[in-house]
Amino acid sequence: MSSSKVYYDYSSFSNGTSFMDAYNNFNQVPNLNFVEKLWASYYYYMNNDLFATGLLFFVTHEFFYFGRCLPWAIIDRIPYFRKWKIQDEKIPSDQEQWECLKSVLTSHFLVEAFPIWFFHPLCQKIGISFDVPFPSISQMLLQLAVFFVLEDTWHYWFHRGLHYGVFYKYIHKQHHRYAAPFGLAAEYAHPIEVALLGLGTVGIPILWCIITGNLHLFTVSVWIVLRLFQAVDSHSGYEFPWSLHHFLPFWAGADHHDEHHHYFIGGYSSSFRWWDYFLETEAGPKGKAAREAKMRKQAEKLQKKTI
Ligand SMILES: [Zn+2]
Ligand SMILES: [Zn+2]
User: Which intervals hold domain Fatty acid hydroxylase (predicted)?
Assistant: First the structure.
């Protein structure tokens, strides 16, 4: 019998050591959906919750990061898609992509593979649950929306700080090596930057749980996957007529972040456009034109007052 705390009552379970045995046991538990059964079977089968969480998060990160990068790497090789490339004269060379891949993999194994093993004990300490059944979908969606908004705020301020003098020179410059980004370049960054901006992704759910006492590890994993997709897509270098920001005008997307890599100044947020809009830090000619129009309006107003 497994010692996992993923479920509270194994008394009706039959013995067996394979993953399928575990799944067949959870299949008998009423009111569990397919994903909950898979999740519970995994923990039950692993029989070591700390190791199971560490492995799950490491594999999830690798699988979804590179899985999401792959279509962009393929699209880069198909001339048909060139018409939607934002900086169409700059297609990353094989050499550039290979060097980026090596660096990202090194960072994953050296910087992230270590702290990931402390995640389960931390979850237990602050009360992030991992048992089945999961919380309701509406609760998960609400928490995901909060994480997106808060992470974007964290990202805006720390990213803006990283563009300041010495921080840029010694830390953030590495990420700006590619003036025309590509998917794989999303996590191409100095280890300090990976830790600092990564803290926004992982630290916000932790803080949320400390304050509310209500968070499930499955929600955290969905959040990390969505945040990975957001980061990879914003570095893709492609702007399609069906890109999300055409339907959600406050969504940043590749259109927003490509300008940041192109012009180096402005466009500091990750998921949304509001911080850059209200603090007048939008990048590129479009941002400059908007700022100038705003200044002109203010000057005209002032002139009218003095007449
Ligand atoms: Zn930057
Ligand atoms: Zn970037």
Answer: 145-281
**Amino acid at site 73:** A
C-alpha 46: how far from its chain's center? Answer: 27
47-81 residue pLDDT tens: 999 999 999 999 999 999 999 999 999 999 999 99
| Residues 35, 41, 46: CA angle, nearest 5 degrees | 130
* 34-47 per-position pLDDT tens digit: 999 999 999 999 99
Kindly report whether the global pTM for this prediction surpasses the value 0.85.
Answer: yes
What is the residue extent of each domain of the chain?
1-47, 49-115+134-306
Ligand nearest to the CA of 162: 1
Give distance in angstroms: CA of 152 to centre of ligand 2: 14
- In tens, the pLDDT along 96-147 reads 999 999 999 998 888 777 888 889 999 999 999 999 999 999 999 999 999 9
Backbone angles phi, psi at 85, to 5 degrees: -75, 130
Give φ, ψ of 44 to 5 degrees: -60, -45
CA–centroid distance, 168 to ligand 1, in Å, is: 8
For residue 242, the model assigns a pLDDT of: 95
Whose atoms come closest to the Cα of 185: which ligand?
2
Q: Hey, what are 292's tokens?
A: 């100038």
Note the ligand closest to the C-alpha atom of 179. Answer: 2
Q: How far is the CA of 162 from the centre of ligand 1 (A)?
A: 7
CA pair distance 84, 89, nearest whole angstrom: 11
- Give 263 Cα–ligand 2 centroid separation in angstroms: 12
Note whether 6 and 40 are within 8 A (CB): yes
Report the separation in Å between the CA atom of 264 and the middle of ligand 1, taken as the mean of its atom positions: 6
pLDDT at residue 208, as a whole number: 97
What pLDDT, on a 0 to 100 scale, did the predictor assign at position 38? 98
Tell me the CA–centroid distance for residue 194 and ligand 2, in Å.
12
